[in-house]
Amino acid sequence: xxxxxxxxxxxxxxxxxxxxxxxxxxxxxxxxxxxxxxxxxxxxxxxxxxxxxxxxxxxxxxxxxxxxxxxxxxxxxxxxxxxxxxxxxxxxxxxxxxxxxxxxxxxxxxxxxxxxxxxxxxxxxxxxxxxxxxxxxxxxxxxxxxxxxxxxxxxxxxxxxxxxxxxxxxxxxxxxxxxxxxxxxxxxxxxxxxxxxxxxxxxxxxxxxxxxxxxxxxxxxxxxxxxxxxxxxxxxxxxxxxxxxxxxxxxxxxxxxxxxxxxxxxxxxxxxxxxxxxxxxxxxxxxxxxxxxxxxxxxxxxxxxxxxxxxxxxxxxxxxxxxxxxxxxxxxxxxxxxxxxxxxxxxxxxxxxxxxxxxxxxxxxxxxxxxxxxxxxxxxxxxx
Length: 384
What we know:
This protein is mainly α. It has 20 helices and no strands.
């Protein structure tokens, strides 16, 4: 079974991979549904207020239509909080995999949920906390809440909501391991020990000689090693920033992402690496290069780590607009969570109202059925 075959069994491929068209359609649907819910909730409040005002003094209130966020505005606000997530995780000195997973949790959640329904600031904290648990870097909720200077309930209240948005799938396949493996292969080539693909009839020494000829030509093996190390470091930085802030995880495989990062920082070296895997006559080669160029273009278009003056002005405008178009029924997640717990106690310890609990159980079972297993498919029995 190839690496690609293994990836195709993952929940990331089956549940979180899209075409550009299907991704855009999903976001449009989410935005339209959220806007409709917000306007309906506001109208209900206005109707109640008008009735109360009419009962008191006979006057009628004014019903104003809510100006909801556009799809583009939603994307900008989510991207901003992805940047905030990266800054927070770096400040806390948590591992890179925690940072990358937390950002992907946030991006996945807002494919089917809108910032107008659930504010990203509230979900972001829980996404980091859940990522720490998923990536085996667990800290107590108390110590984590202290870093944020918020009550522990602010972290825990949205947790089940977030897991629902993630469809109860927590595995995220990152491109970091692929980059490390590719770099080790390049080092082996420089030492004259690397093996080419099965269809490439070249000796390790021949491959090293060809690598020395990759423009700009290296004077010796030492200079070649330095070139590889430089490309590795620059590509890794792209994976830790640009890859997280774009839609690359939704549109490309981890292998395509890390190869695109290498393509960006040293195209000649990336082409040489692929030449050791695919013969010149391979029909897959031109298609692969086209895919890598598209992915590289996406990485190149990633937002800057620090917004400029105009971008900050735009973000402030969107933030202000968001405060005016949030769903009034979803403002207090802590309060909603506490109400559910009270309902659970009144229900005799079952948790929630019977119908709600049954619905959530069915949702979990359906999601688990789709993903087969949280930790991947069962390993095949070893024979012989």
